[in-house]
Amino acid sequence: MTEQNPTPTAAARFPSPRVAPQIAQTADHHLDIEEVTKDFGRQQVLKGINLSVARGGTTAIVGPSGSGKTTLLRLIAGFEAPDTGRILMDGKEVAGSTWVPAHRRNIGYVAQDGALFPHLSVGQNVAFGLDREKFRGRKAVQERVDELLDMVALDPAYAKRRPHQLSGGQQQRIALARAMACEPEVMLLDEPFSALDAGLRVATRRAIGRVLHQAGVTTILVTHDQAEALSFADQVAVMRGGRLAQIGNPFVVYTRPADRATAEFLGDAVILDAWLEGSLAMCSLGAIPVRRPPAQGRVQIMLRPEQIRIAADSRIHGTVLDWDYFGPESSVRIKLPERPADPRIPGGGEIITIRHWNAAMARAGMDLALKVIGEGVAFPID
Ligand SMILES: Nc1ncnc2c1ncn2[C@@H]1O[C@H](COP(=O)(O)OP(=O)(O)OP(=O)(O)O)[C@@H](O)[C@H]1O
């Protein structure tokens, strides 16, 4: 873990009360980020971030490239200092009016490429993080290295190899073992799976997630992959343009995104113009129930493609344009009727994409009856 001797700015050392509000501390918060900002030159990269992470919890910070994810992680690690705001661990300030350097924060860090030392063996890489006061002598070190390799499901026989003699997934597990050797309370993972191919990526993610969960380590994963964020974490924080657009559990952020951009970032979304009356949105797909309507009248309604099903008994129809076959499911493009029967309903003629498991059912030009399952999410029109 390299430290870059960050110099806290005057604002970070002496934040004004205006920018460092007291946010109620909850007993099980391990990490609290309060009103944190960070500028690089004239660019404000973080614009007032507030985020709390529960002890032993797993948070994924997800967002498009350049949204400030890595910068936030580096601030938590102590590689950089915030310009304003503060960061607390266990309710104690580590950045803000005080400064605790990276090596005293008890935080592990695994980078995208693992950053193993190429000239050291696997065993020496893992041993690098050990507290030599605690593990004195070759035997004690060897036993602990074997234990750590076992923890990440690697045979101790690998200890003698050099990093380049291992697969990408094995190298990432070694990087985790090295970071775990320091016995960190918090583990920061900066896109550690992104260089791995699809199959290895899922297996490595599962293996690393299991190790951290079993050890009760509070974990923050940075990723730009929404599926990875949803499957890995119990809390997802969506970043956009230096701000947190939404924080919630994976189910909530996926099914009830806060705005259209978040909806589209987290997965495929069908978005239609609609007329909202009470808690029913009327659109080309019929009357769709909406939870907590944000407005009345003209809105946009969002559905996930898997909520739109083919159902023989429905009055809503569409025409198949084409489809893509993916094996277990197909993606079917459908054109909705030009003018909905009810004149109050905006839209018509929209092209939507749904998912269906049976490709044999779809033919171009075929008429399909469609049914919506569950609730939609309405977004006000600006
Ligand atoms: N040390 C630095 N000096 C100047 N600008 C920086 C520095 N670090 C980051 N930035 C800028 O801050 C912005 C946010 O970068 P950051 O790496 O935090 O984004 P990110 O969301 O992690 O992106 P990616 O997914 O591409 O890694 C970018 O515009 C980047 O160019």
UniProtKB/TrEMBL annotation:
Its EC number is 7.6.2.9. One of its GO terms (cellular component) is ATP-binding cassette (ABC) transporter complex. Gene3D superfamilies: 2.40.50.450, P-loop containing nucleotide triphosphate hydrolases. It comes from Sinomonas atrocyanea. InterPro entries: AAA+_ATPase, ABC_SmlMolc_Importer, ABC_transporter-like_ATP-bd, ABC_transporter-like_CS, ABC_transpr_FbpC, Mo/tungstate-bd_C_term_dom, P-loop_NTPase, Transp-assoc_OB_typ2. Residues 31-266 form the ABC transporter domain. The keyword Zinc does not apply. This is ABC-type quaternary amine transporter. It comes from the Bacteria. It holds the Pfam family TOBE_2. PROSITE patterns: ABC_TRANSPORTER_1, ABC_TRANSPORTER_2. Keywords: ATP-binding, Cell membrane, Ion transport, Iron, Iron transport, Membrane, Nucleotide-binding, Transport. Transmembrane segments: none annotated. GO terms for molecular function: ABC-type ferric iron transporter activity; ABC-type quaternary ammonium compound transporting activity; ATP binding; ATP hydrolysis activity.
